[in-house]
Amino acid sequence: MANPISLPLYEKIPRKNTLQRAFDILIFFLLLSLLIYRFLFLNNHGLTWLLAFLCESCFTFTWFLTISTKWNPVFNKTYPDRVLQRVPELPSVDMFVTTADAVLEPPIITVNTVLSLLAVDYPTHKLACYVSDDGCSPLTYYSLVEASKFAKLWVPFCKKYNIHVRAPFRYFSNNPLTFGGSSMEFQQEWNRMKDEYDRLDCKIEDAVQNSLPPCDLTGDFLEFSNVKRKNHPTIIKVIWENKTDLPDGLPHLVYISREKRLQHPHHYKAGAMNVLTRVSGLMTNAPYMLNVDCDMFVNNPKVALHAMCLLLDPKSEKEIAILGHGIAGIQGPFYGGTGCFHRRKVIYSLSPDNVDSVNEKLAEDILSKFGSSKELIKSAAYALKGKTDPPTNLRNSIQAAYLVSGSSYEYGTSWGTKVGWRYGSTTEDVHTGLMIHKRGWRSALCTPEPPAFLGCAPSGGPTTVTQQKRWATGLLEILFSKSCPIFATIFGELQFRQCLAYTWVLSWGLRSIPELCYAALPAYCIITNTYFLPKVQEPALYVLVSIFVLYNFYTLSEYLQTRQSVRAWWNNQRMSRINTTSAWLFGFLSVILKLLGISETVFEVTQKDQSSDDVNNAEAGRFTFNESPLFLPATTILLVHLTTLVVSLLKLQPPAQDGYGSGLGEIFCSVYLVLCYWPFLKGLFGKGRHGIPLSTICKSVALALIFVHLCRRTTMG
């Protein structure tokens, strides 16, 4: 029998993907052959052929980036039991939860996330949970205070019966007989927990309905009186402190609402994360940090142990900086902003080459730009050297914590530029991860079974497109900045293929232009009776058909392999078209306006929803709308193609030049696009939030008529 000490904490297992690679290469060569054909016959065709060539060149480049990005998939198999056998004392972990708006992000969602974190299988005296409330809401604070009372019952219950799902809302929505056994004692305690959670839920909902906690803003709530979301002082509350330092107690729970002033930029979530980093450095200074969004709860109670398998392995100390989802086979996955473990010393800008040799000169150089707090500099020096010396009482650090949470603290420091979460983009997560990779660190993908975290996906059209716009905007901001991955490869330690992977994701917004142009080509050709597709007698037509069939078959097979339905595949195919030509387009325009100095980009908080499965099933397939201009491009595209099909059906086209006009290929493309935008077709006749607002329809009709008119003028000219 193998010695447990000699066994690895994790294994890096490459995934076989021979068939996938074959499909990838085949599609790539078909795209190249199409481009070559287009190029050779450019002189024999008009503007539509040239535009198709340019668009397809962009698609081919994107496919090349896609192939490079997913060429080496790997799977990390972790062994949490070996960690417990090998490590006599597990390291501390500071857990961060961020929320910004008590209306869009209801407190009950944040509460469930916090409760799931407090109940993870890890020594509780090694855990601390910090909640950042950028909305400075007394409702959020009240909800956390009440949740801490429930946690004293919930955490022991979960650990006593080895409950697997530790977010109460999700646990109590399932049959209790499927969890923890069915003894009389368990049933009695289950009913007690259910009653206690229902009371907690009712208290929070009542407070939300009244827009105030069920008490005056006095006493513990006095600091919340007369505060405004964007203009208020710092508020820090130690809701619960594990003073007894017991491993089976309740982890520390701290509420933080950083100072905001109108004259100082607050840098959205990145600014909140940096305040959490500084305050936690003063209070607990754990060597590892976990951050989650307020709507992402722990789904696997052993998640911290799984993470430690990767972070505590002797090889990973000089390699692995963060854990998260994404690209795993190159330099590691992108940092996705939530469900991610970090090394504190890496967030403090330490490079892998210096991890074992942090001398006084290096530490002084790094800490020289940490700000004026001597206490923070002292704690950071300990963290860089792999030591921890947290105060025995959290409240002893309150005064220093208020200083580092001030809105002007970061002036003259490296926070947001060289230290901590990076500023300058609405996707601070990818930006921060890129800078970590630039220093030579690797990241690792941790995929335990069941999944470590689950979250709330956007439940409606407005939320989805707003989120997609924010991502496209932020990613493009990085691409057009000095943090561009090309510079990170030339002047830093970012690997070339990792650079290609970052280029693939950062260029989302740019893809909207060729996609929009390609979507307009069939309509233009049908209206003007021209063509952009090869004719039936040309071999290149079969290349195009092969690409279309192979790509759709390939993507469908990927969905089926992961046990997803054909409907899920088709919905995502449609949403891909909708997002690219609407949300990503507006993201591109936002960045252009920023580069021209006309306007600044804005971080938009999206609505979080924790609806039951029954509600989700009832709403499945029903797209929702509002008066946002984000729906204008997609509605216009739909109306253009509906008009196009009417023109073709009624034979309203002009005579074809040279005897070659639009054919079945262009009509098929137009029909396919109508199917992709089917939710918008239903929205034209829908009512309420399921219908496209009349103002949007009128604007789209005007734009569609302008497009048709311009097409007609080209034929007349």
TrEMBL record:
Its main location: membrane. The chain crosses the membrane at residues 21-41, 47-67, 540-560, 581-599, 630-650, 662-680, 692-711. GO terms for cellular component: endomembrane system; membrane. It is a multi-pass membrane protein. UDP-alpha-D-glucose binds at residues 105, 134. Keywords: Cell wall biogenesis/degradation, Glycosyltransferase, Membrane, Transferase, Transmembrane, Transmembrane helix. The active site is at 134, 429. InterPro entries: Cellulose_synth, Nucleotide-diphossugar_trans. It is found in: Endomembrane system. This is Glycosyltransferase 2-like domain-containing protein. It comes from Fagus sylvatica (Beechnut). One of its GO terms (biological process) is cell wall organization. Mn(2+) binds at residues 269, 293. GO terms for molecular function: cellulose synthase (UDP-forming) activity. It comes from the Eukaryota.
